[in-house]
Structure prediction request, 340 residues.
Amino acid sequence: MITYPEKLNLAQTPTPFYLLERLSANLGIANAPRIWIKRDDLTGSATSGNKIRKLEFLLAEAQANGCDTVITSGGVQSNHCRAVAILGAQLGLKVHLLLRSDSKPQAVGNLLLDQLVGATISHYSIREFKRLDSLFKHWTEHYQEQGSKAYSIPTGGSNGTGIWGYISAAEELAADFVRYQINPRAIVHASGSGGTQAGLMLGCYLHGISAPVKGYAVCDNSAYFTRKINADLQDWKHRYASDIDISALKAETFDDYIGPGYGQAGPEIFDFIKQVAAIEGILLDPVYTGKAFYGLIEDIKKGKYSQPAPSSQSSQSDDIVFIHTGGLFGLFAQQQQLGF
Ligand SMILES: Cc1ncc(COP(=O)(O)O)c(C=O)c1O
Prediction:
């Protein structure tokens, strides 16, 4: 039995889980493992995506600590910051976003929504963002001087508290697997700040799921994710004084499909997004899910998923699960790349 900390009920869960019936045949991988999808893009309308699962725990902690303000950070089109901005408005918390951008950003996609719900926004260059810790400190002191109490959420909501969101999502997945009687050979998703992967790895371990969790990086390299995921797991262990042995949890994050860089994708990703949208009605984004799902399909074609994972049971079925972590608003910020 796992004792979860206090959380707010903000996400629409459980999210749908189903088999992508047409995709494999249409993409020429009919003989490969079947692909199932966990629709975490449906956790809310404007609050959609993976971040809300983490924020259920983080914002509960903010409220329990008596905070009236939330400070968080991310790229200018951060899905995480958008989710914080909207949930802050829903809960009556002030939200201050520290956003990274080098040019004057257009109010489109996530940034449009940040502004719509009245978040305070400070824009910083990539160079200024290198001293993010001191920016958080500066604004925390600023609110303190005003008689407010600010709660800081790290980029992506990834820390020992935030990862509870995907420990709990793994419990949902375990129920999905029982319902459909599958024992997948892999659980796959996009990795940005590592918290989703850390939570899923730990959650699978705690909920008895043997499938390995495989992250597709959209920014930093595999070595970075190994360190970051380990740091989040250690933070979790420390905060919750758990005696669970996390040393057996080894992160597997692939960095072959980042493309030109974070937030930038090549034409193959936009073509792929169009294909998947037309075949299955699934909307991917060019920053996270488009790259991760594209990477998965390419790796299936290369035979990377043909062998069952060494740690798996012999009864393992021929199934792969893709977690759709949301990100749709990022597509609107790059819509001209779709070429319509
Ligand atoms: C749509 C989407 N998918 C995946 C991720 C990656 O999640 P994480 O930051 O927990 O690695 C993010 C955020 O970074 C995201 O916004």
User: Anything to note?
Assistant: The beta strands are 17-19, 34-39, 69-75, 94-100, 120-124, 150-153, 186-191, 213-217, 252-254, 319-324.
